[in-house]
Protein backbone atom coordinates (compact mmCIF):
# COMPACT_ATOMS: atom_id res chain seq x y z
CA UNK A 1 0.00 0.00 0.00
CA UNK A 2 2.80 2.37 0.90
CA UNK A 3 4.46 1.59 -2.42
CA UNK A 4 1.28 2.50 -4.33
CA UNK A 5 1.01 5.79 -2.50
CA UNK A 6 4.61 6.57 -3.33
CA UNK A 7 3.96 5.82 -7.00
CA UNK A 8 0.91 8.12 -7.04
CA UNK A 9 2.95 10.86 -5.44
CA UNK A 10 5.51 10.60 -8.23
CA UNK A 11 2.87 10.59 -10.99
CA UNK A 12 0.92 13.55 -9.63
CA UNK A 13 3.60 16.21 -10.21
CA UNK A 14 4.33 14.71 -13.62
CA UNK A 15 0.64 14.89 -14.59
CA UNK A 16 0.41 18.49 -13.39
CA UNK A 17 3.45 19.44 -15.44
CA UNK A 18 1.84 17.85 -18.51
CA UNK A 19 -1.33 19.84 -18.06
CA UNK A 20 0.55 23.09 -17.65
CA UNK A 21 2.61 22.33 -20.77
CA UNK A 22 -0.56 21.61 -22.77
CA UNK A 23 -2.11 24.88 -21.56
CA UNK A 24 1.06 26.74 -22.50
CA UNK A 25 1.00 25.30 -26.04
CA UNK A 26 -2.68 26.21 -26.45
CA UNK A 27 -1.95 29.81 -25.41
CA UNK A 28 0.97 30.03 -27.83
CA UNK A 29 -1.20 28.80 -30.72
CA UNK A 30 -4.10 31.08 -29.81
CA UNK A 31 -2.01 34.20 -29.16
CA UNK A 32 -2.32 35.64 -32.73
CA UNK A 33 -6.11 35.42 -32.57
CA UNK A 34 -6.24 36.83 -29.04
CA UNK A 35 -3.91 39.66 -30.04
CA UNK A 36 -6.05 40.58 -33.06
CA UNK A 37 -9.19 40.68 -30.89
CA UNK A 38 -7.40 42.80 -28.30
CA UNK A 39 -6.15 45.21 -30.95
CA UNK A 40 -9.54 45.57 -32.62
CA UNK A 41 -11.79 45.75 -29.57
CA UNK A 42 -9.50 47.36 -26.97
CA UNK A 43 -6.79 49.36 -28.72
CA UNK A 44 -8.99 50.25 -31.72
CA UNK A 45 -6.28 51.83 -33.87
CA UNK A 46 -7.28 54.79 -36.00
CA UNK A 47 -6.87 54.84 -39.74
CA UNK A 48 -7.50 51.12 -40.02
CA UNK A 49 -9.22 51.46 -43.38
CA UNK A 50 -6.96 50.51 -46.25
CA UNK A 51 -9.25 51.32 -49.16
CA UNK A 52 -8.81 54.50 -51.19
CA UNK A 53 -12.35 54.77 -52.52
CA UNK A 54 -15.22 55.72 -50.22
CA UNK A 55 -17.45 52.75 -49.42
CA UNK A 56 -21.10 53.50 -50.13
CA UNK A 57 -23.26 52.56 -47.16
CA UNK A 58 -25.97 51.45 -47.00
CA UNK A 59 -26.03 49.52 -50.26
CA UNK A 60 -27.56 51.27 -53.24
CA UNK A 61 -28.66 48.68 -55.80
CA UNK A 62 -29.18 49.73 -59.40
CA UNK A 63 -32.74 51.12 -59.43
CA UNK A 64 -35.17 48.87 -61.24
CA UNK A 65 -36.56 51.97 -62.97
CA UNK A 66 -33.21 53.22 -64.26
CA UNK A 67 -33.36 52.86 -68.05
CA UNK A 68 -30.49 53.54 -70.44
CA UNK A 69 -30.21 53.79 -74.20
CA UNK A 70 -27.64 51.61 -75.95
CA UNK A 71 -25.64 52.74 -79.02
CA UNK A 72 -28.12 50.98 -81.31
CA UNK A 73 -31.00 52.97 -79.81
CA UNK A 74 -32.45 50.17 -77.69
CA UNK A 75 -33.80 51.19 -74.28
CA UNK A 76 -32.95 48.64 -71.57
CA UNK A 77 -32.79 48.46 -67.80
CA UNK A 78 -29.43 49.31 -66.28
CA UNK A 79 -29.85 46.12 -64.28
CA UNK A 80 -29.28 44.11 -67.45
CA UNK A 81 -25.56 44.89 -67.16
CA UNK A 82 -25.15 43.11 -63.84
CA UNK A 83 -22.68 40.22 -63.71
CA UNK A 84 -19.43 42.16 -63.93
CA UNK A 85 -17.73 44.86 -61.92
CA UNK A 86 -18.96 48.09 -63.51
CA UNK A 87 -16.67 51.12 -63.45
CA UNK A 88 -18.89 54.12 -64.19
CA UNK A 89 -18.31 57.68 -65.30
CA UNK A 90 -20.99 60.32 -65.90
CA UNK A 91 -20.42 63.09 -68.46
CA UNK A 92 -22.04 64.87 -71.40
CA UNK A 93 -21.30 63.50 -74.86
CA UNK A 94 -19.08 66.49 -75.72
CA UNK A 95 -16.53 65.14 -73.18
CA UNK A 96 -14.22 67.97 -72.10
CA UNK A 97 -10.61 67.50 -70.96
CA UNK A 98 -11.60 66.38 -67.46
CA UNK A 99 -13.95 63.80 -68.98
CA UNK A 100 -11.32 62.55 -71.42
CA UNK A 101 -8.80 62.17 -68.60
CA UNK A 102 -11.26 60.22 -66.49
CA UNK A 103 -12.14 57.85 -69.34
CA UNK A 104 -8.43 57.34 -70.02
CA UNK A 105 -7.83 56.46 -66.35
CA UNK A 106 -10.70 53.96 -66.45
CA UNK A 107 -9.37 52.29 -69.59
CA UNK A 108 -5.87 52.00 -68.16
CA UNK A 109 -7.09 50.77 -64.79
CA UNK A 110 -8.95 47.95 -66.48
CA UNK A 111 -5.95 47.00 -68.63
CA UNK A 112 -3.58 46.93 -65.64
CA UNK A 113 -5.62 44.18 -63.99
CA UNK A 114 -4.10 41.72 -66.47
CA UNK A 115 -5.97 38.39 -66.68
CA UNK A 116 -8.66 39.76 -64.36
CA UNK A 117 -9.56 42.67 -66.65
CA UNK A 118 -12.41 40.78 -68.31
CA UNK A 119 -14.25 40.84 -64.98
CA UNK A 120 -14.48 44.63 -65.28
CA UNK A 121 -16.71 46.56 -67.67
CA UNK A 122 -16.08 50.29 -68.07
CA UNK A 123 -19.22 52.34 -68.70
CA UNK A 124 -19.67 55.94 -69.80
CA UNK A 125 -23.13 57.14 -68.77
CA UNK A 126 -23.77 60.04 -71.14
CA UNK A 127 -26.30 62.61 -70.04
CA UNK A 128 -27.38 63.51 -73.59
CA UNK A 129 -27.62 61.75 -76.94
CA UNK A 130 -25.40 64.11 -78.92
CA UNK A 131 -22.53 62.84 -81.06
CA UNK A 132 -19.40 61.63 -79.28
CA UNK A 133 -16.12 63.15 -80.56
CA UNK A 134 -14.54 60.61 -82.96
CA UNK A 135 -11.21 60.70 -81.10
CA UNK A 136 -12.93 59.76 -77.84
CA UNK A 137 -15.03 57.02 -79.44
CA UNK A 138 -11.98 55.53 -81.18
CA UNK A 139 -9.91 55.47 -78.00
CA UNK A 140 -12.49 53.56 -75.95
CA UNK A 141 -13.87 50.77 -78.08
CA UNK A 142 -14.13 48.38 -75.12
CA UNK A 143 -16.21 50.87 -73.12
CA UNK A 144 -20.01 50.84 -73.03
CA UNK A 145 -21.47 54.16 -74.16
CA UNK A 146 -24.94 54.46 -72.65
CA UNK A 147 -27.34 57.40 -72.46
CA UNK A 148 -29.13 57.97 -69.16
CA UNK A 149 -31.22 60.65 -67.53
CA UNK A 150 -28.99 62.77 -65.31
CA UNK A 151 -31.71 63.29 -62.72
CA UNK A 152 -32.22 59.54 -62.36
CA UNK A 153 -28.46 59.08 -62.00
CA UNK A 154 -28.29 61.79 -59.33
CA UNK A 155 -30.94 59.94 -57.31
CA UNK A 156 -28.76 56.81 -57.34
CA UNK A 157 -25.16 58.02 -57.26
CA UNK A 158 -24.09 60.01 -54.16
CA UNK A 159 -21.36 62.64 -54.48
CA UNK A 160 -18.88 64.30 -52.14
CA UNK A 161 -19.73 67.72 -50.73
CA UNK A 162 -18.85 70.39 -53.25
CA UNK A 163 -18.61 67.98 -56.20
CA UNK A 164 -20.88 66.81 -59.02
CA UNK A 165 -21.68 63.49 -60.67
CA UNK A 166 -19.20 64.32 -63.40
CA UNK A 167 -16.31 64.54 -60.91
CA UNK A 168 -16.34 60.92 -59.75
CA UNK A 169 -15.65 57.38 -60.85
CA UNK A 170 -18.10 54.88 -59.33
CA UNK A 171 -17.79 51.12 -58.85
CA UNK A 172 -20.75 48.72 -58.92
CA UNK A 173 -20.35 45.10 -57.86
CA UNK A 174 -21.56 42.17 -60.04
CA UNK A 175 -24.73 41.90 -57.94
CA UNK A 176 -25.68 45.41 -59.04
CA UNK A 177 -24.89 47.21 -55.79
CA UNK A 178 -23.08 50.54 -55.86
CA UNK A 179 -20.19 49.92 -53.49
CA UNK A 180 -17.46 52.55 -53.96
CA UNK A 181 -16.95 56.15 -55.05
CA UNK A 182 -13.55 57.54 -55.99
CA UNK A 183 -12.73 61.21 -55.37
CA UNK A 184 -12.41 64.09 -57.77
CA UNK A 185 -9.00 64.18 -59.50
CA UNK A 186 -8.20 60.66 -58.28
CA UNK A 187 -4.86 58.93 -57.90
CA UNK A 188 -5.04 56.06 -60.46
CA UNK A 189 -2.42 53.99 -58.63
CA UNK A 190 -4.59 53.94 -55.51
CA UNK A 191 -7.71 52.99 -57.48
CA UNK A 192 -5.67 50.20 -59.08
CA UNK A 193 -4.79 48.89 -55.62
CA UNK A 194 -8.46 48.87 -54.55
CA UNK A 195 -9.49 47.03 -57.72
CA UNK A 196 -6.72 44.45 -57.36
CA UNK A 197 -7.79 43.67 -53.79
CA UNK A 198 -11.46 43.38 -54.72
CA UNK A 199 -10.76 41.05 -57.64
CA UNK A 200 -8.37 38.94 -55.56
CA UNK A 201 -10.65 38.41 -52.58
CA UNK A 202 -14.04 38.34 -54.31
CA UNK A 203 -15.25 35.48 -56.46
CA UNK A 204 -17.98 37.65 -57.94
CA UNK A 205 -17.89 38.57 -61.59
Automatic annotation (TrEMBL):
Keywords: Membrane, Transmembrane, Transmembrane helix. It comes from the Bacteria. Gene3D superfamilies: Glutaredoxin. The chain crosses the membrane at residues 20-43. InterPro entries: Thioredoxin-like_sf (IPR036249). This is Cytochrome oxidase Cu insertion factor, SCO1/SenC/PrrC family.
